[in-house]
From TrEMBL:
Keywords: Cell inner membrane, Cell membrane, Membrane, Signal, Transport
Keyword Membrane appears in the UniProt entry: yes
InterPro entries: ABC_SsuA_sub-bd (IPR010067), NrtA/CpmA_ABC-bd_dom (IPR044527)
Name the UniProt record assigns to this protein: Aliphatic sulfonate ABC transporter substrate-binding protein
Amino acid sequence: MPATTALRRAFAVMAVLPLLTLAACGYGSQAKDDGAVRVAAGAERTDGLDAVRIGYFGNLTHGTALVGNRKGFFQKELGATRATYAVFNAGPSAIEALNSGSLDIGFLGPSPAVNGYVKSGGRNLRIIGGSASGGVKLVVDPDRVKSPRDVEGKRIATPQLGNTQDVAFLHWAAEQGWEVDAQSGRGDVTVVRSDNKVTPDAFAAGSVDGAWVPEPTASKLVAQGGEVLLDEASLWPDGKFVITNIVVRQEFLEEHPKAVEAVLRASVETNAWINAHPDEAKAVANEQLETDSGKALPAEVLDPAWDSIRFTDDPLAATLDAQAEHAAEAGLLDEPDLTGIYDLTLLNEVLGAAGEPAVDDAGLGAE
């Protein structure tokens, strides 16, 4: 079902930055190649492809992609088919790259995945795996906000109109009994849509009283003197909720299932390695962040941020369904029909081969 007019307007005004070419036409900045990962001698191409184009965001909640890139897990599984990477700053540009065919597979938050699926009438995208859970916090100025009740009347930043954290904060505010106009952000609480790169400066200047943000932005605010008022994980059953999915173009999935399976196999291997080597994985992810952005995270930000994220192959489909319902309740989506948004067939084959249990699509699988 289509997104509301308000959300479509939000997409329209989000600037798609001029970006470097990725396989003739792209929407994300090309991840730098430090030469560390090479195609193995004698390797064969997967599905006859020269390359598979993988997109992710330059933040720790996309740690599977950061580590899988840096350690060469994706390249190993793809053989002589080159794994190429693009780094995005926001969900709409990644969705546009997938829809245009300039990106094959992307690591995306739940709201961009839902919005992309709904906007295309369920024709363009599929969620094929999970990547990460958690890593989202409400951080506040402790001099101005000492309890959840004190949030009323304050200015709270979220990353973007209709994004995953924006929806989560609006839902939480409604549960407190506060009224907020989702589009304008005005109401009993003022919601300030602020890019994660800008929010720490706004917080330091006192122009916002707090922020509902993902890592590492949350830990950056804590390093500036903020305090965690609420960890979003505390609001979900078993403390688990999806923060990053693996999404593929439906056409690519149909035409190149072996390549998709190779990427999923690499993702499962990467997550297993991360969970077995958390300290080394944290350092590796930070190295890739530095390669991609030119700046590594300091330990006082990196350590708590990494500790709050859980890397998982399970897409936690029931929590994505709940998040979509929250967006509809806030007026950011018409009541969405997400039937068919998942295709976990290949992931479950990979998990079975690795001796791991299958994961569930919460009744939202493709027929």
